[in-house]
Specification:
The chain is elongated. The strands form two sheets. The protein has a six-stranded mixed beta sheet with strand order 1-2-4-10-9-6, with no helix packed on it. Strands 3-5-8-7 form a four-stranded mixed beta sheet, with no helix packed on it. It has 168 residues and is mainly beta. A hairpin with a 5-residue loop joins strand 1 and strand 2.
């Protein structure tokens, strides 16, 4: 019987491949490819305008008009009272988003009918601004797909999505 041993070069190559696979970007939406889109870095928006906050001071935020996606993670949005918006996060059966949660002044946003059916792994919600306040919306999903066969690599990382909505 032949004895199999791992060499340091083989182990280093496998480690590099694992790290490259768990940190690669996906072009469009996640279609079950197992590719990972990194947490977006908040960037200044050209449409960002200072808006008075509930405390009366001026703070920059982006006007929220219609829909939030995974690319909006880490950003702060402003919404006028009675305004509505939708959150649509595209996932996959292998890497599903959890239900979107709210924290902060949860009376500021009232959940409304999302209006469409979601695929397995997607997360979605729709809200109407009901009162002045600040709410944080958040969810997570696995960073890597669960292994489906023996000898496959798995990871325990999670991808986080979070936005802050200021209602005035």
């Amino acid at each position: 019987m032949r004895r199999t041993t791992f060499h340091r070069a083989t182990l280093a190559a496998a480690t590099l491949l694992l790290l490259a696979g768990c940190g690669s970007q996906s072009g469009g939406g996640d279609k079950g490819s197992g590719a990972v889109s990194p947490k977006p870095t908040p960037t200044p928006s050209t449409t960002s305008t200072p808006t008075p906050s509930a405390g009366g001071s001026s703070a920059g935020c982006t006007p929220l008009t219609a829909e939030l996606t995974a690319a909006d993670s880490g950003r702060t949005f402003c919404l006028a009272q009675d305004g509505t918006f939708r959150v649509t996060l595209t996932g996959s059966e292998q890497r599903p988003w959890k239900k979107i949660g709210t924290a902060g002044d949860t009376t500021a946003l009232k959940p409304v009918n999302y209006g469409i059916m979601l695929r397995g792994g997607d997360a979605g919600a729709a809200y109407q601004a009901a009162a002045a306040g600040t709410v944080t919306l958040s969810t997570t999903r696995p960073l890597c797909a669960e292994p489906t066969g023996s000898g496959q690599v798995s990871c325990k990382g999670i991808q986080e999505w979070q936005v802050t909505v200021r209602v005035s």
